[in-house]
Every structure is written in structure tokens, then in C-alpha cells.
Amino acid sequence: MILSTTPTIEGHTIREYKGVVTGETIIGANIVKDFFAGIRDIVGGRSSSYEHVLCEAKNTSLREMEERAKAMGANAVVGIDIDYETIGNSNSMLMVATSGTAVVI
Question: What's the pLDDT tens digit per position in 33-74?
């Protein structure tokens, strides 16, 4: 399956639009990651533990969207948008939502 943020896929004609597909993932970050991320905020540098959680959530959301597109009979998703939000008490959870248009090319 081809996943693309662009509205078209070069070299392919969209033959059929199946509809909007989405994927959502909500994932928590634990207190240990919060503690070390706080230290990195003070001394500088990247928080690899948070980057890993963010990447995992994005990939899960994209996979979920892809599965829904396959169930609709699509072989590609175009116009993908990825949104990140913090939710929950004290913003302790990360939500990643993906959306796009399932198509047949």
C-alpha cells in the first residue's frame, strides 16, 4: 500500500476514491521518561525516550489507517495529515491522529 501526504501519486492515476480513513493512537509516557526529559530540558539535548514514544504512536496510527483503507478495497492513501496532541490530566497522554483519502490507483 502506498501512503502519501501528497494529493496525487506521480505516475499513477487515481481510478476510484473510497473515502476518508483515519487512525488514532493514544499512548502514555511514564514518570521515568518524564523525569529524564525534564533533566534534558534543563541541560539541553534530545529526549530519545520521548522520540521513541512519539515514533511508535505515529507508526501505530498509520498502520491502523492503512488497515482501514485495505478493508475498504483501497491500495493507496493520499493527502495524509498527521496531528499530535497532548491530552489527559496534566497532559500525560499523547494522541496521534492520522487521516487521508483511501483510493484505488
Answer: 554 455 455 545 565 667 777 888 899 999 999 999 999 999
Cα 39 to chain centroid, rounded? 27
Based on its alpha-carbon atoms, the radius of gyration of the chain, rounded to whole angstroms, reads: 17
Q: Which of 74, 72, 80, 99 is nearest to 15 (CA)?
A: 74
Prediction pTM value: 0.79
C-alpha distances (whole Å) from 62 to each of 55, 77, 89 are: 11, 10, 26
Neighbours of 92 (CB within 10 A): 13
DSSP sequence for 5-71? SSSS-TT----EEEEEEEEEEEEE--HHHHHHHHHHHHH----HHHHHHHHHHHHHHHHHHHHHHHH
- Look at residues 50, 28, 55 and name the one whose alpha carbon lies nearest to residue 39: 50
SS3 91: helix
